[in-house]
Amino acid sequence: MEAAPQNSVESPVERRRLPRLRTVLPVQFRSIAKPEEPFRGCLSKDLSAGGIRVTVTGFLAREARLVLLLSLPAHLKPIRTIAQVVWVQKKSLTEICDCGIRFLEVSPQDRELIADTVERGVVGRVGSRDRF
Asked: Most buried residue, 12, 51, 129, 131, by CB count within 10 Å?
């Protein structure tokens, strides 16, 4: 077996186990620690049955726990989940951040609805290299 050259860069290991769908959906959230505060709005960038990536104005602390309301197409009632911020990436010279959020508590029916939405989107894009 041949050793890799010393200057080679290994690609990062993909840790996601669930398919993701690149999609823009309305999302509302608020801190569990501050239930008196109103919900804030943002938009998703991608979605899986296990979590969501959103773009927010302002800062969300890593590991913050949130009440999150997710509006899916063709579903009248928003899905309510308890979620946790896993990572935050601030965009240069702005107050905008991309955040990875993991769903901690979501009903089995709602998780299935999310998974079905992702699956329909992913199936509709078979052959696309735009998945992640």
From this structure: 51
